């Protein structure tokens, strides 16, 4: 039996050749190596570990001592922040960057577009469409890394993760490695990270439902989107149109459209295509940032067309305007401070309540004494004193809760700064200043609108005076009414601003509270004659 098995193996070797066996063995070694490294990749981040410890210990101990009806919501919010921090901890420098998702149909040329724009080596070709979402960013060296589902990041061998490669694993590699990172010093944008996604529409290159889901998630959550269209189609495809309409209507996402492979068309043709696409999108109610051309083969020509045609928006200029450090750390701290503010408001409401109870009890004591009840040994006075002590203790407990809240939130802030590897200047005090300004703006706007109603009331009064009593008014009185009416009309045309609010306040003091009441009284006296 053993001899038969050896003979069979020799015959097979003779048919397929030893070179095939060697290459297949090498491929399997690579694949198993990737799987092992990804599964073994663990995240080790001191700041993240501290955040989780604070959440599980200090925060839970604090929240159990405080009555807060939104406690479950607050806990869930902080847990979600922890998940977001895990992503940041995988690759902290990634979150100094603003995310630009590159979308479009299969074979629109997304990867070749990114290769040329960023100087990368993403797999391209009809049989090599992107299978795993890839983050492309500036780095000190050219390296491909995968992020495991555990949050760890591992360096990967230099081979493409297209659908053909992915299918050879015999399971969905994305289940253990949801995305990859490709860094290179050639990337010309310091604070932009480009995400190459699978095409959203079916194709014969191994498309799966996971491709569409991955694209949808990235596009729906993107801050900025570049939508790549093959200009050889001559217009926007119906699939693209439906998808862009969905992105805009359901998620409020505007896109910048890239007419790719522009070397295949004349300038006149490109302008006609762009105008046609813009009109179609306008008819559907879809707003866009702009349309630009791109060509890997004729880049300088494409750049010149963008810069010298009123139809197009220069792509590089648009991207330069976005190339700013991300405020992700500030966004996360804002969520933390929102939780702190909610707790603080609830505690201060209780604090105010207990102070008010003590004040009322003291007033009750004084009232009783004034009525002649001055027997301090009486049960009533004893009960009042007991309640005062009880509310005083509760007041002190609430004050201690405020202090404890500050301590716990300071610990959270320090752990978040550790995750980002930088101490944020966005403190609790700055957050309060920003939110106070926002509240003041709302209050000022309400006052602005209220005074405008007063202005309208005055305008209508002086207008009626001019119409009803024109024959009775002497020229001087008539001109005064007209002047007041004109001033009111000018004020009614004002838009909200702090300067215009000052003008309205001045009107309220000088006219509505003084001149207008006097004129109303004069009119009333005349009506009684």
Automatic annotation (TrEMBL):
Example GO CC term: the record gives:
membrane
Main localisation:
membrane
Which SUPFAM superfamilies is this protein grouped with? P-loop containing nucleoside triphosphate hydrolases
Presence of the UniProt keyword Ligase in the record: no
Q: Which domain of life is it from?
A: Bacteria
UniProt subcellular location: Membrane
Query: A Gene Ontology MF term for this entry?
Result: GTPase activity
Keyword set, alphabetical order: Coiled coil, GTP-binding, Hydrolase, Membrane, Nucleotide-binding
* Protein known as: Dynamin N-terminal domain-containing protein
Q: Which organism is it from?
A: Helicobacter pylori (strain Cuz20)
């Amino acid at each position: 039996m053993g001899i038969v098995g050896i003979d069979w193996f020799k015959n097979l070797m003779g048919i397929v050749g030893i070179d095939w066996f060697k290459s297949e063995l090498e491929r399997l070694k690579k694949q198993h190596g990737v799987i092992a490294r990804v599964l073994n990749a663990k995240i080790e981040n001191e700041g993240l570990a501290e955040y989780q410890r604070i959440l599980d210990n200090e925060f839970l101990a604090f929240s159990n001592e405080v009555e807060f009806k939104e406690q479950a919501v607050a806990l869930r919010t902080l847990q979600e922040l922890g998940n977001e921090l895990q992503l940041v901890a995988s690759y902290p420098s990634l979150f100094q960057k603003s995310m630009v998702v590159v979308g479009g149909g299969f074979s629109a040329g997304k990867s070749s577009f990114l290769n040329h724009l960023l100087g990368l080596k993403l797999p391209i070709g009809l049989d090599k469409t992107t299978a795993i979402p890839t983050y492309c960013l500036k780095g000190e060296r050219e390296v491909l890394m995968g992020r495991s589902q555990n949050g760890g990041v591992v360096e990967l061998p230099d081979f493409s993760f297209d659908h053909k490669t992915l299918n050879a694993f015999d399971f969905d590699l994305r289940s253990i490695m949801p995305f990859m990172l490709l860094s290179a010093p050639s990337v010309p944008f310091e604070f932009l990270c480009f995400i190459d996604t699978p095409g959203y529409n079916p194709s014969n290159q191994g498309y799966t439902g996971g491709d569409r889901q991955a694209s949808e998630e990235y596009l729906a959550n993107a801050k900025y989107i570049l939508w790549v269209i093959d200009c050889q189609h001559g217009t926007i495809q119906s699939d693209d149109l439906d998808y862009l309409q969905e992105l805009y209507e359901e998620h409020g996402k505007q896109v910048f459209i890239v007419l790719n492979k522009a070397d295949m068309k004349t300038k006149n043709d490109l302008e006609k295509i762009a105008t046609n696409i813009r009109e179609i999108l306008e008819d559907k109610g879809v707003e866009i940032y702009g349309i630009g051309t791109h060509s890997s083969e004729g880049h300088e020509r494409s750049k010149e067309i963008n810069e010298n045609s009123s139809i197009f928006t220069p792509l590089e200029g648009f991207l330069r305007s976005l190339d700013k450090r991300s405020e992700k750390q500030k966004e996360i701290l804002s969520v933390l401070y929102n939780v702190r503010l909610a707790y603080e408001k609830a505690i201060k409401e209780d604090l105010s309540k207990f102070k008010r109870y003590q004040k009322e009890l003291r007033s009750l004591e004084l009232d009783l004494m004034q009525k002649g009840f001055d027997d301090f040994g009486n049960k009533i006075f004893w009960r009042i004193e007991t309640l005062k002590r009880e509310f005083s203790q509760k007041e002190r407990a609430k004050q201690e809760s405020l202090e404890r809240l500050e301590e716990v939130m300071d610990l959270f802030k320090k752990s978040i700064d550790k995750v980002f590897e930088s101490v944020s200047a966005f403190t609790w005090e700055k957050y309060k200043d920003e939110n106070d300004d926002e509240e003041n703006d709302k209050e000022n706007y309400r006052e602005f609108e209220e005074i405008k109603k007063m202005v309208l009331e005055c305008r209508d009064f002086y207008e009626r005076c001019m119409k009803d009593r024109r024959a009775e008014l002497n020229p001087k009185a008539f001109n005064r009414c007209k002047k007041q009416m004109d001033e009111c009309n000018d004020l009614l045309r004002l838009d909200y601003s702090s300067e215009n609010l000052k003008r309205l306040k001045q009107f309220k003091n000088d006219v509505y509270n003084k001149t207008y009441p006097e004129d109303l009284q004069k009119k009333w006296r005349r009506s009684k004659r």
